[in-house]
Amino acid sequence: AALSAGVAYADNLAGYYGNTVVVTAPDGKVSKSKVSADKTYSTTQADGSTTKGTWVWKDDKVACFTQTDPAPKPDQKPLCLPIDPHKVGDKWEVKTPDGKGVVKYELTGG
Asked: DSSP for 59-86?
């Protein structure tokens, strides 16, 4: 059977919708993000400020997040991250791009 161009990927973000991703940076600063099924997101930064934007799937495992509010710097590129499926209560860690630090994640309800 041939695959159609409209093939749907499994939605690795499905468990995130309506919940909060608590992100602890290597420096200990905590931010909280909400990802919505309507392809929007909002993040409350450690300093209390909020950023908002949109997201799209780059492929079946990588989502790219583009900040829209406040307006991004002209050279700011979307942040593309591999997304694994998670459910409320899950905790996981990802090394920083330089491999020297660890970012901690927790998916919490609400």
From this structure: SSSEEEEEEEESPPPTTPPPEEEE----
CB 94 within 8 A of CB 103: yes
**pLDDT digit string (tens) for 62-77?**
999 999 999 999 999 9
| Distance, CA of 106 to CA of 32 (rounded, Å) | 10
Residue 2 phi, psi dihedral angles, 5° rounding: -85, 145
The order of strands in the sheet holding 91-95 is: 79-82, 62-69, 50-57, 40-44, 30-35, 20-24, 102-108, 91-95
The span from the CA of 21 to the CA of 107, in Å, is 5
65-89: b or e for each residue (b if 16 or more CB lie within 10 Å)?
bebeeeeeeeeeebeeeebeebeee
- pLDDT over 90 percentage in the chain: 80
82: closest CA among 7, 13, 21? 13
